[in-house]
Amino acid sequence: MSRHDPDIRLPLTGDGPLDPPAEWQRLRERCPMATAELPSGDKATYLTRYDDVKSLLSDARFSRPTATDNAARIAPDGAGGPAANGDTSLAIPDRGEPHQRWRRQVGKYLTAKRMTALRPGMVSIAESLVEDMVEHGQPADLKAAVGFPFPVYVICDLLGVPAEDRDRFSYWSDAFLNVSRYTTEETRAAHAELNQYMAALIAAKHTEPGEDLLSMLIAESAEEGEGLSDDQLLHTGVALLVAGHETTANMIGKMVSMLLADRTRWERLLADPSLVRTAVDEALRFDANLGFGLRRYLGEDVDLDGRILPGGTTVICSMPAANRDERVFADPDEMDLGRSPNPHLTFGAGPHSCLGQTLARSELQVVLDVLLRKLPTLHLAVPAQQLQRVEGLLVGGLRTVPVGW
């Protein structure tokens, strides 16, 4: 297999906006470690089997590449946002014990117990957004009316961001995840604006602390003397905003679309709302439009299922392909709303798994529960095959989700 002759070119897409690429099954069976060409033209190794993806993501030696790793780039000509390019200016430690210490410090404010305490506020936000959507009439774009604003409002509440500043965060988040949607100048300007805003917010929290996560981290730093620096606080805020906004905003639209594409799924949840929790995890597993997958740079040789991947290799771990692996999931191409256990890899695995997964699950459960309760007759206003994928970002999504009720 020549490094100059790729097996596939990324991103792969299915026949329809919610469908998995047919290549995934072929790759899992015949070429589970394929050579892939990225939009930049660089080559990487593309993993599609569950055990391979989980093994690599769980390996504490490897994390996302930085700009100094000489890893395969996703975006062409360095045009991508910091998340696509591997920005070394981020002050968050991403390897070894410093990374785990940072995760422990921030993670204690993102526990299931804390999410339970935040849940009534989330419900209130979701209900208000749904009511506003109904008031504006149908058809409506569920993504614009609920999916996009809901997680940014929640994360802004968590960070203590003033309500009037919420809408500015959407554009900044998009630019951070840019692959080809924005120019280099636009991406740099948005990144600078976001950093400037977050620095001013942290300075304000030092002066007038609140009950938000940033204020709590500042107070902890002052008490213990070994907390996060202001640079680390800034980039923690940026990371939580981007991770907590764009991915969940897109997932709300995709989840509802998947459930409405086959009406029997929605009807099953109406008949048994206790399935909301497992339905959310099944939507996360079933999602075929997740984006590129997680990039890892191998600083040393790795034995993966008897095959040596040499140091210097860039690996793309395709979680959605792994989530369809028939070796792990019975009837993987069926959306089973009661599937349990459901060990999907959508949030990654191991020491670098998604820190905000409890928050994301809570948000998705709240939105789904509110929609079932307030709009039981909700339906797609266009055939599912007419939905259009988001292009040019590191994460997958749908451009709009037209609905009626």
Question: What's the topology here?
Answer:
Elements: E1 8-9, H1 23-30, E2 33-37, E3 43-47, H2 50-57, H3 82-85, H4 96-107, H5 112-135, E4 140-141, H6 142-147, H7 149-159, H8 168-176, H9 184-207, H10 213-224, H11 230-261, H12 263-271, H13 276-286, E5 294-297, E6 302-304, E7 307-309, E8 314-317, H14 319-322, H15 357-374, E9 379-380, E10 402-404
Parallel strand pairs: 1-2, 3-8
Antiparallel strand pairs: 2-3, 4-10, 5-8, 6-7, 9-10
Helix pairs in contact: 5-7, 5-15, 7-11, 8-9, 8-11, 9-11, 11-12, 11-15, 13-15
Order of helices and strands: EHEEHHHHEHHHHHHHHEEEEHHEE
End-to-end separation = 52 Å
State the major sheet.
Answer: 5 strands, mixed
Q: How many DSSP E strands?
A: 10
What strand order characterises the main sheet? 1-2-3-8-5
CATH T-level fold name: Cytochrome p450
Number of helices: 15
CATH architecture tag: Orthogonal Bundle
Rough outline:
globular
Strand content: 5-15%
| Assembly type | single chain
The low-confidence parts are: none
Class by alpha and beta content: alpha+beta
Quick overview of this protein structure:
This is Cytochrome P450. The protein is of the alpha+beta class and 405 residues long.
Question: Can you offer a commentary on this structure?
Answer:
The protein is an alpha+beta fold and about 400 residues long. The chain has a single domain, classed as Cytochrome P450 (Cytochrome p450), CATH 1.10.630. The longest helix is centred in the middle third of the chain and has 32 residues. The N and C termini lie far apart (about 50 Å). Keywords: Heme, Iron, Metal-binding, Monooxygenase, Oxidoreductase. This is Cytochrome P450. It holds the Pfam family p450.
